[in-house]
Amino acid sequence: MVLSEQDYRLISVIQDGLPLVSHPYAELGKKLGMGEEEVIQRLERMQREGIMSRFGVVVRHRELGYRANAMVVWDVPDGQVEEVGRALGAQPWVTLCYQRARHLPQWPYNLYCMVHGRRRDEVRETVRRMAVELGLTGIPRRLLFSVRRFKQRGGHYR
């Protein structure tokens, strides 16, 4: 995988975020002397070739009014983790869902998902409703509400 100078310049300008305009890739292209389609193709190629493993947004939930954020941890039977994880991850109020190893006997939880809401009671009700709708009421869970927010940003390479 060989990166051109244009690839390096593109990585450099996107690492601080996309411009908040209706056509962000066209705006980046103007800065780099290329068209919108070329910017998109380069980003797709870098992802396809593994140069960039992920390209996504960092949402600052508090600025949008979502101040009750909870990591819901589940003790899912090992044979059901993939199925339950897919079901949870497909829910519109779940922003991420992933599996981690248990640390028995102190920590039996192996599936984690993040749920955001404006108030804690709203998040509790969302999680309760989600458990009922997905048939997960019998699976032990805990809600771990955020008390502090750390700075979020994407990777920086230069």
Please summarize the sheet with the most strands.
4 strands, antiparallel
The number of strands is: 4
CATH fold field value of the largest domain: Alpha-Beta Plaits
Low-confidence stretches: none
Assign the CATH class of the largest domain: Alpha Beta
Secondary-structure-based class equals alpha+beta
Rounded Rg? 20 Å
Number of helices: 5
Mean pLDDT: 89
Helix content: 25-40%
| Order of adjacent strands in the largest pleated sheet | 2-3-1-4
Number of domains: 2
CATH architecture of the largest domain: 2-Layer Sandwich
End-to-end separation in angstroms reads 18 Å
Beta-strand share of residues: 15-25%
Q: What is the global morphology?
A: elongated
Order of helices and strands: HHHEHEEHE
List the helices and strands and how they pair.
Layout: H1 5-14, H2 24-32, H3 36-48, E1 68-74, H4 81-89, E2 94-99, E3 111-117, H5 120-133, E4 141-145
Antiparallel strand pairs: 1-3, 1-4, 2-3
Helix pairs in contact: 2-3
Your description of this structure?
The chain is of the alpha+beta class and 158 residues long. It folds into two domains: 5-48; 61-145, Alpha-Beta Plaits (2-Layer Sandwich). It has five helices and four strands, in the order αααβαββαβ. It has helices at 5-14, 24-32, 36-48, 81-89, 120-133, and strands at residues 68-74, 94-99, 111-117, 141-145. A four-stranded antiparallel beta sheet has the order 2-3-1-4. The two termini are 18 Å apart.
